Amino acid sequence: MPAHAADAAPVKNIVLVHGAWVDASGWKPVYDILIRDGFNVSMVQEPETSFADDVTAAKRVIDMQDGPTLLVGHSYGGSIITQAGVDPKVAGLVYVAAHAPDVGEDEGELGRKMPSVLAKTPGAVEVTADGFTYLKPELFPKLFAPDMPSAQATFEARSQVLAAKGVFGTPLTAAAWKTKPSWGIVAGDDQIINPDLERFYYERAKAPFIVVPGASHSVYETHPEQVAAVIESAARSLGSASE
């Protein structure tokens, strides 16, 4: 690699997109590392009222960026960045224990083909009378965050953002990973998304990925150093590619 490429400035703008049943505050450990290392980090707060609303929320934050942007999605957030990532400002994508459907696919259908522990746990997901879903609070620590301190996992179980049932079954109309460089992280002990499904997504997208052994679905909170390292490596890669 030419010396000037090796020394190229990384993409500085990073947008973090959370998954279902949680909010952007879970990104705080990763945010702290990225900010310390000089990145401009923004987070999307999705309403989780519909897939279209959540994609719009992501696009709104992308529009606020002042240049090339690395889009990072966790879990359901992977579907959001796959749809929103076709935006010209988006230089690349990082999937963190995330879904990455193709055009015409939805994560619910794909999850049924490679079921997770969650999918095999009867009654784990509750649905309100008006069609919003949440993970049964007493099961949240065990399924979503078994490697998280108990008090924190319990708090997150009780502060869930209820997600409209339809968000998981909306087929995508764009697949940014087909045209944008992508990277992935597999949570080795994920109970929410089957780790084999995560591998399938990343291999199909030709995205280099790491596996964090023993990590739960909350890998972005419990292993922030490893997650931030992948994000920073992707940002450096994109910066070099633009030279």
TrEMBL record:
SUPFAM superfamilies for the chain: alpha/beta-Hydrolases (SSF53474)
GO molecular function: hydrolase activity
Entry protein name: Alpha/beta hydrolase
Pfam families from the UniProt entry: Abhydrolase_6
Alphabetically ordered keywords of this record: Hydrolase
Organism: Ancylobacter koreensis
InterPro entries: AB_hydrolase_1, AB_hydrolase_fold, Sec-Metab_Biosynth_Hydrolase
Residue ranges the record marks as coiled coil: none
Domain AB hydrolase-1: 14-230
